[in-house]
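Input protein
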Amino acid sequence: MKFDPRIVKSISQLCLQNWPTPAITWASTPVAHKDAVWAEFKKRYRWADEQGPVISDLFWQKCASRTKDNLAKERKKAMHNAEIDHQGPAMEHMHEYSPWWCSADIWVEMCVKWRDENWQKKRKTASSNRAGGGEKAKGTYKGQYLPIAAYGYQGVSISRYSYSLVRCVCGNS
């Protein structure tokens, strides 16, 4: 099961909207921001009460994955622009290219965290684990997603108030 791409885009925008902190992961994002994102999502969409736990699980999974992807994309874009515009290490100038959804001062703090030696080490380890090869790291899963029955989710549907979408969550994937 997965959310309709329009809902995923909405979740991405909600997560990034007014990024309140120099958090570089969803897990380190303040609870108040997470709660505000969930509250806004609940204002925009409705679902049957019995589907609440399933929708909540999917929502939080999407928040984490989309935030990770968006932060990585923006970091990569800033590095690329810094390489084009400056001589020397791009990492030293990436702070000049903040994305639209993040204030410049918060972006600078995020860039400092990304330059940290410990973060760089974790990034390289994670990257080599994903590369896999013959030896995958323990816990690394590089396959197709599991059938919906494995999670016990069946027939979840969601509707958006401001659109005439009747069914915005796909059934079985």
About this structure: The first helix runs from residue 5 to 16. The chain is about 50% helix and 0% strand. The first strand starts at residue 45 and ends at 46.
